[in-house]
Write a structure and sequence with these properties.
The protein contains nine helices and 14 strands. With about 375 residues, it is α/β, with parallel strands linked by helices. It starts with a strand and ends with a helix.
Length: about 375
C-alpha cells in the first residue's frame, strides 16, 4: 500500500495522500493506501454487461466503471462517443459543450429529435444517456472548453475525450492535459469535396490521436499551432459555410462519426483494461476502406510538451487568458516568430474568406 503526506516549502502540512496513480503507455494503475477504504468497484449489472465481461473479464469491466471520462464536445462524434462509452460500461462522465441543438444537427445526434431543438447539447445528450437506465453519473458543463468552469471541471477527470470541431479548442485541451497529466483521446472527421468538381467527394474519413503523458502530444503528431484560426476567422467561416475552395456548408454524416467514435473507444478500452496494446494515432478513409496506424516520438523542442515546457506543471503557473492567445501555453506565446506568422496568416485568410463570401452572394 501507499501512505504519504504533502507539505509546503515552509513545512506546513497541506494534505494526506490516499492513493497514487501511475499513468503510462500500459494504462492507469491506482495504488490505494492500506488503511484507507477506497471504492474500487461499482456495482456491475452482470445481466446487462454479460457479453462485455466475456470479452474484458469482470476486472476489466470494473476498470471501465471506475474511469471518469471528460467528454468535450457532444456534436456528431461526441454524442456517439458518449453513447458507446455508456454501452461499454463507463459510469462517470463530465460532459462539456456550450452549444444548443439545431435542426441541422439531428442527422448525426443519436436519439434526439425535433423536440430537442434549442436545448443545450449537454442536457439533450444526458437525457439520451439516462434513458438507458444504466446508473450513470453525469456532470454537465454548458460552456466552451476555453472557459474557466470547463477547465476546472476537467482537472477532476481521469481521461479527456476531445470531440471538438476546431484546432484552437484542441490545443486548449492538449495544454490542459499536458499540465495536469491527463491522457487525451482526440477525434477528428471530415469529408473533403473535390474543389474542381461539384458534389464529388475526394475523401471521407478521420483520425484518432492519443496523447499519453510523457509521450508525443497532438503538436508532435502533426497539429500545427501556426495554422490555428483566430476566433474572428472561425466566426466568418460559420457565417459563410466555408469549406476548402467552396462557399457552401461542409457535409457531415453520422457514418464517419460513428466509425471514429467506435475506433476511439475501442482503443481507449484496450488502454484502460490492458488486454491489448493500443495504437496512438489511427487514420481511416471510407472511400477506399483504408486504415492506417502511425507512431510519433515526443520532440524535446515541442512548444507544448517538450523539455522545460508545461508538462506536469499543474497550477504552479496560472493560464494567461489573453484574447486570441488563450489556447497556447506560456512557452508558445513567447515565441515571437510563430506568433507573428500566425497573425499574418489569419489576417490573409480572413480577407480571402470575406471576398469569397461577397462574390458568392453577388452571383
Amino acid at each position: 500500500g501507499i501512505q504519504g503526506e504533502v507539505f509546503d516549502s515552509e513545512g506546513n502540512k497541506i494534505m494526506e495522500v490516499f492513493s497514487v496513480k501511475v499513468i503510462g503507455k500500459s494504462g492507469i494503475k491506482d495504488f490505494p493506501c492500506t488503511e484507507t477504504t477506497v471504492e474500487n468497484t461499482k456495482d456491475i449489472d452482470k445481466e446487462v454487461f454479460d457479453r462485455n465481461m466475456r470479452w474484458l473479464g469482470e476486472e476489466g469491466q470494473k476498470k471501465l466503471a471506475m474511469t471518469h471520462l471528460g467528454i468535450c464536445g457532444v456534436g456528431g462524434v461526441g454524442s456517439y462517443a458518449a453513447l458507446i462509452a455508456s454501452g461499454l460500461g463507463f459510469r462517470k462522465f463530465t460532459i462539456i459543450d456550450g452549444d444548443a441543438v439545431e435542426a441541422s444537427n439531428l442527422n448525426r445526434l443519436p436519439g434526439l429529435g425535433r423536440r430537442h431543438i434549442g436545448v443545450k447539447k449537454v442536457e439533450a445528450v444526458a437525457e439520451m444517456l439516462s434513458s438507458q437506465s444504466l446508473g450513470l453519473e453525469a456532470r454537465l458543463i454548458g460552456s466552451w472548453v476555453q472557459d474557466k468552469e470547463a477547465r476546472t471541471a476537467l482537472k477532476e477527470v481521469d481521461i479527456v475525450l476531445s470531440c471538438v470541431d476546431n484546432n484552437r479548442a484542441r490545443l486548449e485541451l492538449q495544454t490542459l492535459a499536458v499540465r495536469y497529466l491527463k491522457p487525451l483521446l482526440d477525434f477528428g472527421t471530415e469529408i473533403h469535396l473535390d474543389s474542381q468538381k461539384d458534389n464529388v467527394v475526394a475523401s471521407m474519413g478521420g483520425q484518432i490521436r492519443f496523447y499519453i503523458p510523457g509521450g508525443a502530444c497532438l503538436v508532435c503528431q502533426g497539429l500545427d499551432p501556426a495554422r490555428i484560426k483566430s476566433p474572428r476567422q472561425e466566426d466568418v467561416e460559420r457565417l459563410t459555410g466555408y469549406v476548402r475552395g467552396k462557399n457552401e456548408t461542409p457535409p457531415s454524416v453520422n457514418i464517419i462519426n460513428a466509425v471514429a467514435a467506435s475506433l476511439g473507444l475501442e482503443l481507449l478500452t484496450r488502454y484502460i483494461t490492458g488486454f491489448a496494446t493500443p495504437g496512438f494515432h489511427e487514420r481511416f478513409d471510407l472511400i477506399d476502406f483504408s486504415f492506417k496506424k502511425m507512431s510519433f516520438t515526443k520532440r524535446p523542442e515541442c512548444l507544448v510538451c517538450g523539455d522545460d515546457r508545461a508538462e506536469g506543471r499543474g497550477d504552479l503557473e496560472e493560464y494567461n487568458r489573453e484574447p486570441e492567445k488563450a489556447s497556447f501555453p506560456e512557452p508558445f506565446r513567447t515565441d515571437r516568430h510563430i506568433g507573428y506568422k500566425t497573425d499574418i496568416m489569419n489576417r490573409i485568410q480572413q480577407v480571402i474568406l470575406l471576398l469569397e463570401a461577397f462574390l458568392s452572394k453577388g452571383k
